[in-house]
Structures are given as C-alpha cells and as structure tokens.
Amino acid sequence: MAAAVTFIEVLDPTAKARMSETPLAPRLTSLQGKVGGFLENTKPNADVFQNRIKELLIAKYNLKAAVWVGKAGAALPLSNEDLEKLKACDFVINAWGD
After folding, report:
1. How far is 49 from 63, CA to CA, in rounded Å?
2. Torsion of CA 35, 36, 38, 39, to 10 degrees
3. Cα–Cα distances in angstroms (integers) from residue 26 to residues 23, 30, 62, 90, in the given order
4. Cα R_g (the chain), whole angstroms
5. Which of 28, 54, 83, 87 is deepest in the core (most CB within 10 A)?
6. Which residues make Cβ contacts (< 8 Å) with residue 63, sequence separation at least 6?
7. DSSP per-residue string spanning 16-79
8. For residue 92, how many C-alpha atoms fall within 13 Å in the half-sphere facing its CB?
9. Is residue 91 within a helix (H) or strand (E), and if so which, with residue range?
10. pTM here?
11. Is the Cβ–Cβ distance between 78 and 22 less than 8 Å?
C-alpha cells in the first residue's frame, strides 16, 4: 500500500516594505548665527554629549540661541510645548547615549 502524501503550505511572514515619500528637510548653508535645538532623551551620558556639542557649536558658529529640551523618558514622546520649542529652531540635534 502506498503512503499518503502530505503537503505543507509554507507561508511567508514578511510584510512588504511601506515606502513613503517624505522629503528631507532643506539643508542649511551655514550654522552661523542660527538657533540650535538640542534634544536629550535621558539616556546615560546623552546630556554630557549634547552639552559638549552645544558648547562647540556656540563657539564655532556664534549661535544666536541654544534651545535645550529634555525628554521625560527615552521611550516617551515629546510634549506639545517642547515640540513647539524645537520647531522654532533652525536645526535640531538629537542625541542618545548609554
């Protein structure tokens, strides 16, 4: 007697990549006299890194202002108030550390 043939259907669990057409922000030609935003996410040493970058940019590019925003937690979203502060900046540097 012949053995019964069993077929197994193999499913592909991968999803198709979702592509979005989000343009990059226009690049600044210079940081000279600009307002810089610094977003620190509470990870260990992120504040140390951010402060050093901020000091260097202020010294080199004579920033008009430096806006410091610290998140309440690395996985938490920004508050609307903090988001508005960063929107007013010419550029924002986001940093994390461990």
Report:
1. 18
2. 70
3. 9, 12, 21, 10
4. 23
5. 54
6. 31, 33, 34, 35, 36, 57
7. PP-----PPPPPPS--TTPEEEEEE---TTHHHHHHHHHHHHHHHH--SEEEEEE-SSTTSPPP
8. 16
9. strand 91-95
10. 0.72
11. no
